[in-house]
């Protein structure tokens, strides 16, 4: 095992992304992979394996050879899959070795630019009055935009008419075109449209205001106490991957998160590099189980299942 770690890697490494090229997770993966390649001395190649809300990619990596040449980067979907799917080809808690968390991306609550309410408080009152006359878009089953929308409906105690799209881009395009009323989406997708004034922004989903949107209130301070949703990303290896190999790959990942080019790129995307304690296997392990419990309860209460 020690000899393997000393010579590792001897060929390119595949970093599997469960979503389409050009999407938020893909953008993060490609930036990290380019930086890690310099540290590892071998290419880190991103492979997009889409389908089934990210579970196809997760199952693929869970069954891959545990030799250090296949890794997975996934967001909150790793925690929501057990609640959404009655049958899974993998167990997030037992079928992977954990490498660490990487970045968190805040969410924003948006509406079409001509929606009448001017403040978050006015929006909440408007939603309660209009109910299912209003449409709420999301990027598909298991997407963080769906989870954010579910939490919003729960906290305002009102059901809206939800409209799923096949990805973030078409959901956002529907909002920009005025075809839907409300969308909760991450800053990597929305900042440019917010700054251009092509959508109406009501709040951010973090407990603290964002540096990139300092004048925008949090939903928590706007009356929805405890409202917090962010897109978090973790990196995983197949169960049984040698600890020394996981450590070497993890060290390269942590070095990438200190790379000035990565720091700048993540800031441009509105993404926050997680604290060093979260960048470790234990940091990811201790985070995942509570997230599974949290979102599983919400999904069950809403009766949202994929099968």
From TrEMBL:
<dbReference type="Pfam" id="PF03401">
    <property type="entry name" value="TctC"/>
</dbReference>
<dbReference type="InterPro" id="IPR042100">
    <property type="entry name" value="Bug_dom1"/>
</dbReference>
<comment type="similarity">
    <text>Belongs to the UPF0065 (bug) family.</text>
</comment>
<protein>
    <submittedName>
        <fullName>Tripartite tricarboxylate transporter substrate-binding protein</fullName>
    </submittedName>
</protein>
<dbReference type="InterPro" id="IPR005064">
    <property type="entry name" value="BUG"/>
</dbReference>
């Amino acid at each position: 095992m020690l000899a393997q770690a000393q010579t590792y890697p001897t060929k390119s490494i595949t970093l599997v992304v469960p979503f389409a090229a050009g999407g938020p997770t893909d953008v993060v993966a490609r930036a990290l992979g380019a930086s890690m390649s310099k540290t590892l001395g071998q290419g880190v190649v991103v492979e997009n394996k889409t389908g089934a809300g990210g579970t196809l990619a997760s199952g693929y990596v869970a069954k891959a050879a545990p030799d250090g040449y296949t890794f997975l980067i996934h967001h909150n979907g790793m925690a929501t899959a057990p609640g959404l799917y009655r049958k899974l080809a993998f167990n997030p808690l037992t079928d992977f070795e954990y490498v660490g968390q990487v970045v968190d991306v805040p969410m924003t609550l948006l509406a079409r630019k001509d929606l009448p309410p001017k403040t978050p408080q006015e929006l909440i009152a408007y939603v309660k009055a209009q109910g299912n006359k209003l449409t709420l878009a999301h990027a598909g089953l298991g997407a963080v935009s769906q989870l954010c929308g579910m939490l919003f409906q729960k906290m305002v105690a009102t059901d809206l008419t939800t409209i799923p799209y096949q990805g973030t881009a078409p959901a956002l395009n529907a909002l920009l075109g005025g075809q839907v009323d409300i969308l909760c989406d991450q800053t990597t997708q929305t900042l440019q449209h917010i700054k251009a004034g092509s959508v109406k922004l009501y709040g951010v989903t973090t407990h603290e205001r964002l540096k990139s949107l300092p004048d925008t209130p949090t939903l928590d301070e706007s009356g929805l106490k405890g409202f917090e949703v962010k897109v978090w990303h973790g990196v995983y290896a197949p169960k049984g991957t040698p600890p020394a190999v996981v450590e070497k790959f993890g060290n390269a990942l942590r070095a990438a998160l200190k790379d000035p080019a990565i720091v700048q790129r993540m800031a441009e995307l509105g993404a926050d590099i997680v604290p060093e304690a979260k960048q470790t296997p234990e940091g990811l392990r201790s985070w995942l189980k509570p997230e599974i419990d949290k979102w599983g309860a919400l999904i069950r209460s809403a009766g949202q299942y994929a099968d």
